[in-house]
Design goal:
Length: 177
Amino acid sequence: MQDSMTIRSCEATQDSESIQTILNHVIQTSTALYDYEPRPIEQVTAWITHKHSAGLPLRGAFDAQGALLGFATYGPFRPQPAYKYTVELSVYVAEHAQGQGVASALMQDLIDQAQTQDYHVMIGCIDATNTASIALHKKFGFHHCGTIEQAGFKFSRWLDATFYQKTLQSPHKPIDG
């Protein structure tokens, strides 16, 4: 699938509904997001707009016909300024496109984006039962750095949040402040 796939920035005007569809399916059927309620289109559009205004990537993988196969993004890990070189990432793939290299293409693109933007650490928070996401992170050199047991509760059970991290070679000259 990767040969017929293109990766580009997602736009609020043309990609909101496709992103909403993927997000809401994930919310309703999995523990990949610890949300309970589907997101309305206004919330998704505002989120996309915020990503762009904050200079954060929101990258989509599209098939030859322009349909969204999946998307990936990152944002601040914590709000304190000393965390400015650390981001937390998310990768979501449409159900019909899973297992076709979409997540790998998006992950590589995010890593490239993070290095270009001079980030140093990328963090993935993954439900401990999400073996596909854990395998994806390990494939790209992320290592397990901790688990918070029973951090969430969804589908009438406790969920363990496991953290994976990748240290990048950037920035070349980090500064305080």
